[in-house]
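agent: user wants the full assembly modeled, not chains individually. Plan: 1) parse entity lines 2) check alphabet per entity 3) run joint structure prediction 4) return tokens. Steps 1-2 passed, two entities, 680 residues total. Proceeding.
--- entities ---
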Amino acid sequence: MRGVVLHAPGDVRVEDREEPRITAPTDAVIRLTATCVCGSDLWPYRGIEEVDGPAPMGHEYVGVVEEVGGDVRNVRPGQFVVGSFFASDNTCEICRAGYQSSCVHRVPVGSLGAQAQYLRVPLADGTLVATPGMPDDDLVPSLLAASDVLGTGWFAAVAAEVGPGRTAAVVGDGAVGLLGVLAAARLGAERIIAMSRHEPRQRLAREFGATDVVTERGDEGVARVKDLTGGLGAHSVIEAVGTQQSMMQAIRSTRPGGHVGYVGVTHDVALPGMELFSSHVHLHGGPAPVRRFLPELVDLVLDRRIDPGKVFDLTLPLDRAAEGYAAMDERRAVKTLLTP
Amino acid sequence: MRGVVLHAPGDVRVEDREEPRITAPTDAVIRLTATCVCGSDLWPYRGIEEVDGPAPMGHEYVGVVEEVGGDVRNVRPGQFVVGSFFASDNTCEICRAGYQSSCVHRVPVGSLGAQAQYLRVPLADGTLVATPGMPDDDLVPSLLAASDVLGTGWFAAVAAEVGPGRTAAVVGDGAVGLLGVLAAARLGAERIIAMSRHEPRQRLAREFGATDVVTERGDEGVARVKDLTGGLGAHSVIEAVGTQQSMMQAIRSTRPGGHVGYVGVTHDVALPGMELFSSHVHLHGGPAPVRRFLPELVDLVLDRRIDPGKVFDLTLPLDRAAEGYAAMDERRAVKTLLTP
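--- prediction returned ---
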């Protein structure tokens, strides 16, 4: 089968890879309908994360079940399924508490390579959510979004305790930040401040529910958020970048007692203890437990109440994955969908 | 009047200071019944925090109202009152959200010097809680504890979301950590792991409700907490020290999705972003909004349902404050009560 392999920073190739097979009775193999490039894929692509030999890429996926292992009960061949980027048993104590991405048996799907034609999904019963029937083609991008980028934006909004009567601010106008805006709107935020300097992304943010746009960054951005919130800061701030500057911007934009939900994979970040102590914020985040939200998100998509697939502004055949990485790297595309 | 002044690290003197007067119509002046030395007073005493010229010390206090400004409505001369270490209006949006120690009009009582015979309390209506009558003498230490050290341990337990069915762990066996144990017990924790190497403090921890004691520190301490919690870590961890080691010990002792409540004043702490991200913990803390809890804590003390005053294992007249600092610095005393 064809699959994306990263050989070195900037060196994305689509190659023949061995077709995955059932290796454990809890596995499923799915034929991918769509996959995509994640902002976090850009870290090794840019050489900021080390690339350890040729590595299969991709962890976002929807597809049709081809085969299941002998112990799989919840999905069967022929079903359309959405998964998340950590396989999880969904039964351990951590999963039951809603943290499936820290499941005691978790397997990172990224290590298996979902930018491909087929994917082996471990712990299929815990990981995959089947749709009631075969979804309409135009819903596929939104279902694919649910598998990571929407689920991650949603978790950020939940972690930031967005809710009615609250003002949310969103640091980061990538796909996760934009879907954080969508999540904040669905969760009832009274006011949503999107922080973005890019006009097309601002427009999408407004479409997803942003009521205000702040173009300033860093301390100036913080000052603008304070201006908009009676000098206090937002109740809930979503951090969707993962740099020192964006984390500090998020923390400083939050009022005392408010909540920061951070989902940008943190690189070279060190949070100063005394400032955090004085800030009085709640800090929560990490790899989104997408599985917690998947059933609800899939329903919202199938009912056409949300359209997160709009973040895909570039669609390419899998074989042209390298172009998709480059477009995102150069910020010419928000997010690239790949069709295997 | 007599009052404690820190001249330089290790140089605590009790001197004649000018008696405080009403300077704003929202002030009260109280005659102190008891005051004490805080763990945080040891930071400048040890030279870890800079000492900026001779500085009046102390921010924990109970006493009797001598005089009130023209706008004070909630307390009157002759009443016994308990205050907290930040004066707060208790009416602003931040106060109403329960973060009085970040009140938009807050005044640090430490800057006024509560280790003295008299104290001016700004924003008296928002800051002070009067008892129904004059409390019994034996309750004074516990009421004094409510003004900071109990309120701080209590906030840590609330921030760590201690509750029924949960396992709490407490990093730090100073007075705040010990009262974090007490708070965890009152809040219904099923199991409370006190981390302490000091036998008398272990005993007090058990008296306050600890079910387990872990003597190991750092990674060994973390491993012991994991052993005691099915390999997962505690649901709720109270951090009551404020060093890099104690913060990391707290974070690492917490299960994914669990909560760290940190109240140790953080010195030279830098939290590594990637580890925090991967940990999946909730992090909340800062200067305890003691005022939020004061009415409840005062009631618990007056009803003799808790006895937090037990953390005072040394009582000295105010004039011997220097001995009290030294005893705490050398860990000969958990906490020193001073009688003006």
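agent: reporting back. The interface with chain B takes residues 93-94, 97-99, 101-102, 104, 230-232, 242, 244, 247, 255-257, 262, 265-274, 276-287 of chain A (CB under 8 Å). The longest helix of chain A spans residues 290-302.
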